[in-house]
Structure prediction request, 323 residues.
Amino acid sequence: MTKGIWVFVEHRENLIKKVVFETLSEARKIADQIEDELCAVLIGKSNDSLVESLSEYGVDKIYLAENDVLKTYTTDGFTNVMSDLIRKYEPRALLIGCTINGRDLAAQVAQRLATGLLTDCTGIEVIDSQLVFTRPIYAGKATVKASCKTNPVIATIRPNTFAAVQNKKDPKIVKTVTDCGNIRQVVIDAVRQVSQRPELTEANVVVTGGRGIKGPENFKLLEELADVLGGAVGASRASVDAGWAPHSMQVGQTGKTVSPTLYIACGVSGAIQHFAGMSSSKCIFAINNDPEANIFKIADYGIVGDLFEVVPLLTEEFKKLKA
Ligand code: FAD
Prediction:
């Protein structure tokens, strides 16, 4: 019998990604409904402080796989370890944050175990004792509910979808023997871009610049607004293709998917491919000088105006509110 809802604990520089706590909080509710246990899977090295943080989020059990070679994420290392753990303990489900590494790991493990994978999920519920996941389809224009007949079901969870709710427990620690298998990738160095801003996919506020921003130098305006709101800066594909922003900032179908509380689109027309990456934002606010721009059809609030006038005014007003 399969047992346990597992959540993969993605971490970097001794900090657990926010999406992990969000996923654990939602998974806790599901585990309670079906009277199953909630388990965290922590793969890495020297994880004591991480174990402590996990115990704040209602975890019953932590599978701990420690090894020097697991210090940084590699596709082979993490896939080998996770697949072995699943074969050994046979969980009902594995939930993974829909991040760059999370998407990679989920696809690899699903392929390795020949099991079903549901990506970018925004809801989990129990129907007839089965886990059913909600996923946006057609660039966010519709949603579908899906389940998998294979065990375990693997699902990636969109960041910022669920609230992280603290719920202290004393989890059982299961130290596992880790044969990391053959690892073909070698991480030689990780170069960190120095930024005080939150990661785009995890940010509560995203300020995005489209072609209307007219040049790379003008992103400074958006950065100032983002900074006063504690947000991240994104870009449309038109801005990225023009070389004004790196691809890592692109929001949309071929970029990142964001789900912030507030999405501020500046000089973005609102193409379907852009919408695909930001449609689940809780509040969309658009600034565009064309009253007919498509973005106003999907925005909750909008200002028809020149972004070069509106954005600095907004920044000033938010600064006053903070003072
Ligand atoms: P535009 O469509 O040129 O819009 C610029 C807007 O700025 C206009 O609405 C204009 O009125 C406004 N503006 C101009 N000046 C000002 C001003 N001073 N003040 C205020 N407003 C002003 N796009 C993405 O964004 N992300 C993706 O991931 C993506 N993937 C794609 C994948 C495929 C397969 C394809 C075919 C396309 C994809 N695209 C993607 C491209 C998409 O179709 C659009 O071309 C793109 O989103 C347009 O970017 P934009 O809104 O910045 O530019």
